[in-house]
């Protein structure tokens, strides 16, 4: 990934969007548009940009959120998990997700939402259970929160994809024709 000023600006804007959307949805437990923004960055600008948007945006959120900063192990797991959403966006594009049509594309986007959510909540749930103990009851108790996030992203990814597709057509006109 080349770090042109244009690319740095895009990563910065999307990382700020992750932070702002996390604030905007803080009152809805585990419903977060940030996963989709990070996924979109990976899809639009590649692996490096997606990972950077996830890492920077989530680092900002986990340090400067209304509930106080997270403990270090949880913070690290949040940053890593969010970065993996950018990886998923890059892989989705590389595996031909943009060439799918109709219901297949919607199903693939819903699947991407489930995978991104899982890639985030698995390390975060393990870190949370490890920090707050007892491990297994805490891990099992957190599953309900993860289910809410899974269901919301199953809907959010296909619903908001037209915005990403519009950006994709502007960024890559030759490939979207």
What coarse outline follows from CA principal-axis ratios?
Answer: globular
Structurally, the number of domains stands at 1
CATH class: Mainly Alpha
Q: What is the beta-strand fraction?
A: under 5%
Average pLDDT confidence is: 92
Biggest sheet details: none
Q: Which class of secondary structure composition applies to the elements?
A: mainly alpha
Gyration radius, to the nearest Å? 16 Å
Query: For the terminal residues, how far apart are their CA atoms?
Result: 25 Å
* Strand/helix succession: HHHHHHHH
Number of helices: 8
Low-confidence runs of at least 5 consecutive residues: none
CATH architectural grouping: Orthogonal Bundle
User: What is the count of β-strands?
Assistant: 0
CATH level-3 fold name:
Arp2/3 complex 21 kDa subunit ARPC3
- Helical coverage, percent range: over 70%
What do you see in this structure?
The chain is an all-alpha fold. The protein is 81% helix and 0% strand. The chain is built from 8 helices and no strands. Helix 5 packs antiparallel against helix 6. The longest helix has 31 residues. The mean pLDDT is 92.
Tell me the layout of helices and strands:
Blueprint: H1 5-24, H2 34-45, H3 47-63, H4 72-94, H5 102-132, H6 135-141, H7 143-171, H8 173-176
List keywords for this structure.
177 residues, mainly alpha, Arp2/3 complex 21 kDa subunit ARPC3, 8 helices
């Amino acid at each position: 990934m080349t770090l042109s000023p244009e690319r740095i600006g895009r990563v910065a804007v999307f990382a700020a969007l992750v932070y702002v959307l996390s604030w905007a949805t803080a009152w809805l437990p585990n419903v977060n548009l940030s996963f989709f923004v990070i996924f979109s960055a990976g899809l639009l600008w590649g692996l490096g940009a997606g990972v950077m948007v996830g890492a920077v945006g989530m680092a900002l959120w986990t340090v400067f959120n209304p509930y106080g900063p997270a403990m270090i192990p949880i913070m690290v797991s949040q940053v890593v998990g969010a970065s993996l959403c950018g990886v998923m966006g890059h892989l989705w594009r590389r595996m031909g997700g943009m060439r799918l049509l109709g219901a297949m594309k919607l199903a693939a986007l819903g699947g991407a939402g489930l995978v991104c959510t899982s890639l985030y909540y698995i390390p975060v749930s393990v870190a949370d259970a490890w920090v707050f103990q007892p491990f297994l009851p805490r891990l099992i108790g957190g599953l309900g929160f993860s289910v809410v996030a899974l269901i919301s992203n199953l809907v959010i990814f296909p619903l908001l994809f037209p915005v990403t597709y519009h950006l994709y057509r502007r960024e890559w006109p030759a490939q979207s024709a």
